[in-house]
Specification:
Its main location: membrane. It is found in: Endomembrane system. Pfam families: CHASE (PF03924), HATPase_c (PF02518), HisKA (PF00512), Receiver_CRE1 (PF24896), Response_reg (PF00072). This protein is an alpha/beta fold and about 1000 residues long. Helix content is about 45%, strand content about 15%. It is built from 26 helices and 29 strands. The strands form 6 sheets. Strands 13, 14, 15, 16, 17, 18 and 19 form a 7-stranded mixed sheet that branches. Helix 2 packs across helix 7, helix 8 runs antiparallel to helix 9 and helix 11 runs antiparallel to helix 14.
């Protein structure tokens, strides 16, 4: 969205605020409705909890009763089965006795059985019939045989009342009896109505039959068991007539049912809990008790009825079991429902409290919603402000950088080219500072994405050094960079964001350092001992030996650092640095199968340091160490916070070690990817700053008494292909050249240059050094005198005038500056332009060569810059300064291959002009599809017309990109032009 679009959005947000407030009031009234229902909700909740309690209690109670009933059924069925089995045993014994009578009384002639034998046998076998009080045998006698029977027995057949039996069809007098019931001998069993009925049923069925219950002489309830005795065996399916005809008599006995049940229950456990009743239910309306007390059958307590089968098909019996006491309600049926009820009450209380609190915060939510609306409107206003500021600054910077770029394409001296490049780098740094504010907004919105393109890390560090070289020279501080040889030449990542982190850290160091040095190191994480955890350095007697933190550090203290000043992090010492150098010489080779490379970057300075109480907030946005920092040193306080966010996005971490009045060392890690030159595609060109190859094979002798500084100088010489040897004094250098005192040049060629650090040089050495070098030459030790080059942080022209040297190289060192100075000092001709530079722009030239491009911009300088940039790559460019003039030239059929359109122009901006272009194309394409030949010719209808239109804008926010796409533009390029971005935008239409 452009500035106008964002302003409209802000107005719309402001206009919608009253409506939102009114809607919020209506919502607040709606929220109050449930509050009035709170008391009803509470009552319903309590009732629901009570219902749950009742249901759970009922469930647990019924479960306990059901379990008790199951136990009752099991015990009752068990007792009924055992009672039947015991009764069947007694019936079997009576049946066996009947067979005995039939065998020995009727089948033996004469009979082998008499009263004495029967009495003795039954007495001796009574233990097998413990529940029978006595057994007796009654013979069947018909009326015709009564007299002979009575004469034979010697007694008269009597009734139960001991009276002579009246005349009947047949009689059943007892002839044999157990001794215990001998008093019934001679009694007619058929004289009693019920006995007669049982006898008749017994002989007809052939089974044992029972009488109704009655009291025995033992006062127990019992029944009389009657079993028929046949003269011969009958088939099971014999008819009644056959059974009656074969009947010889009847065997009977009194059965003690009460004793049987009592003995049975004593054998089983749990009888104390049960009440057992046995009934004769032949007459359902009047059941007869055989065992137990009279208990109404309709007793409400749990009970179970088990049917009994005693073998009599006529009589029916059953057993009723019930618990002696009503089953108790289990404790779980009370405790569990009560616990659930309490939980319900607690949950209800919590919900009620939460609901009440929710009602209270409703109004706060409504107010927060209003504040959110206002914040969104403020965010739109901030975006508008950022877009305006970005555009207003980028527009003139486009002209500055564009003209510098065009200047660099002309023939310049080496020094002039270096100055122009430095100015260009400074301009790009200013653009990056503008981007910091925009980056902070993107980070907060979570919309910051990283690129993944090939880049040269060492070139980026050279650019950063160039950016701050002037300030470091003005302050007289050492500014140096060192990259380990093990770090790959080309890496895959986001070079812009990596440069931004280094720039922020080095910029802060330059800002807060007045003496000493700033040293940037890059190593592989596997070889570096530079940790990213915070470390507190112990200081005796205060800071750096001073009890007062405000006391300045003595500059006379010499240490093995870049400048000789003490560093904050004791791990950055010469011993550790030598260890890292040994790793580079393959003493500990770096082997990694992964394509990931983790770099450790440290930026060390000897500045004012960070106060201890402020070290916890250095990464907080817009925060500085104290209130005087911004007044003294300037700055916004967002650089470190942005750097921290960028490092974390790169998969690393950042921290620092700082000591007040000693300095600070910031260390961060970054995870990048390896990238070989062979894998670099044209779609992702790597932006390299190729170094000249003219110096390969040369050698130099370096005089420097500080080992760290000499290592940095050797690093830059090595990048140019120059081998070097280090000595600490000029005397040692002369000794090396002359081969005296054990010095030799066996490891290197004769040096063509003598590089001397300024602190090893004095004006008294001018004449003596020259004369001694002449002596060395005359003695034949060196055929050509080496060039004397002084390394100093001061201006080179002044030093060269004061000292008798061939050249002065001004620090900070970087490969391109060093190469330019050596070209002049050694008199080597530089090839311009280099082959590498031509190759780097070849892909873009291939896209634009011979293309007709229309550039539309109301700014004359921007037109010149855009035209010059495009013509440099072989394009044919035509320029207009308004949207209306562009529409006049853009008529179908087009004569242009591409249009670069500025967004903000008077009368008609780029958005409106693009919409007109797309509307015209749509109309012509529609007519072509309809075959309308009246308005368009055949050439016009040959293809669908679509002119690629790229926006030229100084706005870099996301809203501008979205607006460009919405109006029909095919992409955009930001001002100032960058070759890489222009290539990426144009290649889609090639």
């Amino acid at each position: 969205m452009g500035v106008g679009g964002e302003a409209a959005a802000a107005d719309a947000a402001a206009m919608s605020a009253p409506a939102a407030e009114e809607a919020g009031k209506d919502g607040a009234e709606g929220w109050l409705v449930p509050v009035r229902l709170n008391k009803y909700v509470v009552l319903i909740w309590v009732l629901c909890a009570a219902c749950v309690w009742a249901l759970m209690h009922h469930y647990f109670h019924n479960a306990a009763i059901s379990k008790a009933e199951e136990g009752l059924v099991s015990m009752c069925e068990e007792r009924a089965r055992m009672l039947q089995d015991q009764f069947a045993v007694s019936v079997n014994h009576v049946h066996a006795l009947a067979i005995l009578v039939a065998t020995f009384h009727y089948e033996k002639q004469p009979p082998a059985l008499d009263q004495d034998t029967f009495a003795e046998y039954t007495a001796r076998t009574s233990f097998e019939r413990p529940l029978l009080s006595g057994v007796a045998y009654a013979q069947r006698v018909v009326h015709a045989d009564r007299e002979s029977f009575e004469r034979q027995q010697g007694w008269i057949i009597k009734t139960m009342k001991h009276e002579p039996s009246p005349v009947q069809d047949e009689y059943a007098p007892v002839i044999y009896s157990q001794e215990t019931i001998s008093y019934i001998e001679g009694l007619d069993m058929m004289s009693g109505e019920e006995d007669r009925e049982n006898i008749l049923r017994s002989r007809a069925s052939g089974k044992a039959v029972l009488t109704r219950p009655f009291r025995l002489m033992s006062n127990h309830l019992g029944v009389v068991l009657t079993f028929p005795v046949y003269v011969h065996d009958l088939r099971p399916d014999a008819k009644v007539e056959d059974r009656v005809a074969a009947t010889a008599g009847y065997l009977g006995g009194a059965f003690d049912v009460e004793s049987l049940v009592e003995n049975l229950l004593k054998q089983l456990a749990g009888n104390q809990e049960l009440v057992v009743n046995v009934y004769d239910v032949t007459n359902n309306s009047n059941p007869l008790v055989m065992y137990g007390s009279e208990v109404p059958l309709g007793n409400p307590s749990p009970s179970h009825t088990s049917m009994l089968d005693f073998g009599d098909p006529y009589r029916k019996h059953h057993m009723i079991c019930r618990y002696r006491n009503k089953p108790h309600v289990p404790w779980s049926a009370i405790s569990t429902p009560c616990g659930v009820f309490v939980i319900f009450m607690l949950v209800g209380y919590i919900l009620f409290a939460a609901w009440s609190h929710y009602d209270k915060v409703k109004e706060d939510c409504r107010k927060m919603e209003e504040l959110k609306k206002q914040a969104e409107a403020a965010d739109v206003a901030k975006s508008q402000f950022l877009a305006t500021v970005s555009h207003e600054i980028r527009t003139p910077m486009n002209g500055v950088l564009g003209m510098l770029d065009m200047l660099l394409d002309t023939d310049l001296k080496s020094t002039q080219r270096d100055y122009a490049q430095t100015a260009q780098v400074c301009g790009k740094a200013l653009i990056s500072l503008i981007n910091e504010v925009l980056d902070r907004a993107k980070i907060e919105a979570g919309k910051l994405d990283l690129e993944s393109v090939p880049f040269d890390l060492r070139s980026i560090l050279d650019d950063v050094i160039s950016l701050f070289s002037s300030k470091s020279r003005d302050k007289g501080i050492e500014l140096a960079v060192y990259v380990s040889e093990r770090v790959p030449e080309i890496l895959l990542g986001d070079p812009g964001r990596f440069r931004q982190i280094i720039t922020n850290l080095v910029g802060n160091s330059v800002k807060f350092t007045e003496r000493g040095h700033i040293f940037v190191q890059v190593h592989l994480a596997d070889h570096s001992n530079l940790a990213t955890e915070a470390k507190v350095e112990p200081v005796a007697n205060g800071m750096n030996g001073h009890k007062d933190e405000t006391t300045a550090v003595a500059t006379g203290v010499s240490r093995n650092t870049l400048s000789g000043f003490e560093a904050a992090d004791s791990r950055n010492n010469w011993e550790n640095f030598k260890l890292l150098l040994s790793y580079e010489k393959n003493e500990m080779p770096y082997e990694s199968v992964s394509d990931k490379v983790t770099l450790v970057v440290s930026v060390e300075d000897t500045g004012i340091g960070i106060p201890l109480d402020a070290q916890g907030k250095v990464f907080t946005p817009f925060m500085q160490a104290d209130s005087s920092t911004s007044r003294t040193y300037g700055g916004t306080g967002i650089g470190l916070s942005i750097s921290k966010c960028l490092v974390e996005i790169m998969g690393g971490q950042i921290n620092f070690v700082s000591r007040p009045h000693v300095g600070s060392t910031f260390t961060f890690t970054a995870v990048l990817q390896k990238c070989d030159r062979s894998t670099i595609s044209d779609s992702k060109p790597v932006m390299l700053h190729p170094l000249p190859s003219n110096f390969k094979g040369l050698s130099a002798l370096l005089v420097d008494r500080r080992p760290v500084r000499s290592t940095v100088t050797k690093y830059h010489l090595q990048r140019l292909g120059i081998t070097s040897e280090v000595v600490t004094t000029i005397e040692s250098a002369l000794g090396v050249l002359s081969g005296r005192n054990g010095h030799s040049l066996a490891s290197m060629k004769l040096p063509c240059m003598l590089l001397i650090e300024s602190d090893s040089w004095s004006s008294r050495m001018d004449v003596s050094l020259r004369s001694r070098l002449l002596e060395v030459k005359q003695n034949g030790h060196t055929p050509v005198l080496p060039k004397i080059i002084l390394l100093a942080a001061a201006e080179s022209d002044k030093l060269k005038a004061n000292y008798a040297v061939d050249s002065v190289i001004t620090k900070p060192l970087k490969a391109s500056t060093l190469a330019a100075c050596l070209f002049q000092a050694l008199g080597i001709t530089q090839t311009q332009p280099s082959q590498e530079k031509r190759d780097s722009s070849g892909s873009l030239r291939g896209l634009l060569l011979g293309k007709n491009i229309l550039v539309v911009d109301d700014n004359k300088v921007n037109l010149r810059v855009a035209a010059g940039t495009l013509k440099k790559f072989g394009a044919k460019v035509e320029c207009v300064d308004s949207g209306k003039d562009a529409l006049a030239l853009l008529q179908i059929p087009y004569k242009f291959d591409l249009c670069l359109m500025d967004i903000q122009m008077p009368e008609m901006d780029g958005f409106e002009a693009t919409r007109h272009i797309r509307a015209m194309e749509a109309k012509v394409n529609e007519q072509a599809d309809a075959g309308d030949n009246s308005e368009v010719d055949g050439a016009t209808r040959a293809a669908k017309w679509h002119l690629p239109v790229l926006a030229m804008t100084a706005d870099v926010i996301q809203a501008t990109h979205e607006e460009c796409t919405k109006c029909g533009m095919d992409g955009y390029v930001t001002k100032p032009f960058e070759e890489k971005q222009l290539f990426q935008a144009v290649q889609k239409f090639s």
